[in-house]
Write a structure and sequence with these properties.
Blueprint lengths: L29 H29 L1 H26 L4 H51 L6 H31 L1 H30 L7 H39 L5 H11 L5 H18 L1 H31 L3 H38 L11 H6 L1
Helix pairs in contact: 2-3, 2-5, 2-6, 3-5, 3-7, 3-8, 6-7, 6-9, 6-10, 7-8, 8-9
Length: about 375
């Protein structure tokens, strides 16, 4: 009988079996085996993340309102609990919290819209006059520019804006054609917030029961830690946005820049969009100062904007936001950039809280804190 096997010889005169092309695992270097083991696991994790991201993008009309509702709920749950502890009926506490939030946001938007509409004609006239003054300054400057050169330069800028505005126009048409989707999203946000306030704990317990019994304690504790982090992030973000709005709005008021109140409100609302919001609202404040007050007030306004943003970036963010997010600034920048690529402005809005919550939950599970602290408190989360 001929023996089959790698490297074996049968009866006398038989030749060894043909090589199968397989390499025995014990002959592979340790580095190759470890790299191979890590590689397929990383590919599996990347595949799952890619599928989840794809589903989120496809279901964005549902996911975005749900995420906004979670932010509102994380902000309002402590208020509801406070009112309930002081013998308010739960339904009344929830109604006051949600209706009060709707009233506050509506009032801010109404204030900005009415102020801008009231001063729009004056702003347009001042813009035209400022352009004429700039044009005359360039004609009289030592650069020896001619009117034809200035007109060609302006036409090239207008052409570039028209070329890039196709994306804006298509986006506006998309919003107009999906007005029903926008209304549905608003209603979904309101209803989701309401149900999270009414039975958020029951919803979370149902989610926890979807996991294996042995993992429920860890998942429950991680979820509590993530929820506390989310609520802390929202409250601190509101505080930082308020400080930014007061600083820039006060600078505009001292410089007697028109529309100082709308500028402050826009800075407050724009602060919830990382990086992009600060740039857009700051540029708007400098532009209005330039149009109405001239070059040097605009330069001072630019200095005020930069000063406030530097204080936010080097004082408020490390001292205040750092306790709420617990994420390295580089990770925040990368998360915001990735969110913008994947989901545009909504991606920049949710990138930081998603990364912060995921960071806290993963650390809670990996470090095994669920074994000794299954019900973390806000002090535990802040101290981590």
């Amino acid at each position: 009988m001929v023996l089959r096997g790698r490297g074996r010889v049968g009866r006398s005169g038989d030749t060894p079996d043909e090589p199968t092309g397989e390499v025995p695992p014990d002959t592979l270097p340790d580095g190759v085996r470890i790299a191979g083991a890590w590689s397929w696991r990383i590919l599996a994790i990347a595949g799952v993340l890619a599928i989840v991201t794809f589903l989120i993008v496809q279901l964005r009309l549902i996911v975005i309102p749900l995420l906004i509702a979670m932010l509102f709920a994380a902000l309002l749950v402590p208020l509801v609990n406070f009112l309930v502890r002081h013998r308010w009926p739960k339904w009344l506490a929830i109604a006051i919290a949600e209706l009060g939030t709707i009233a506050a946001v509506t009032a801010l938007v109404w204030l900005v819209v009415t102020q801008v509409i009231r001063g729009f004609d004056d702003l347009r006239q001042q813009t035209i006059e400022s352009y004429d003054q700039l044009k005359q300054y360039l004609l009289d400057s030592p650069l020896h520019l001619t009117e034809g050169q200035i007109n060609d330069w302006v036409q090239s800028i207008v052409a570039a804006i028209q070329q890039d505005s196709q994306v804006v126009v298509s986006g506006a048409l998309s919003v107009g054609s999906t007005l029903g989707h926008v209304l549905t999203g608003v209603l979904l946000t309101l209803f989701a917030t309401l149900f999270l306030l009414i039975d958020g704990r029951g919803i979370w317990r149902w989610i926890v029961r979807l996991f294996p019994r042995r993992a429920r304690t860890a998942v429950d504790g991680a979820g509590q830690a993530g929820w506390l982090t989310l609520g802390n992030f929202v409250r601190v973000q509101i505080l930082v946005a308020f400080i930014d709005a007061v600083g820039i709005g006060l600078g505009a008021f001292i410089l007697q820049v028109p529309l100082a109140i709308p500028i402050a409100v826009l800075v407050f609302l724009g602060s919830f969009v990382p990086v992009l919001g600060a740039v857009v609202t700051g540029a708007l404040a400098v532009f209005i100062a330039l149009v109405y007050n001239g070059l040097w007030p605009a330069v001072i306004m630019l200095g005020v904007v930069l000063l406030v943003q530097q204080i936010e970036g080097h004082v408020l963010q490390p001292l205040i936001m750092g306790t709420a997010v617990k994420v390295h600034p580089l990770a925040v920048v990368l998360a915001v950039g990735s969110g913008a690529i994947l989901a545009g402005i909504p991606g920049t809005l949710f990138a930081v809280p998603v990364v912060a919550v995921a960071n806290v939950m993963i650390k809670y599970i990996v470090e095994g804190r669920w074994r000794t602290n299954p019900n973390p408190t806000l002090k535990d989360v802040v101290r981590e």
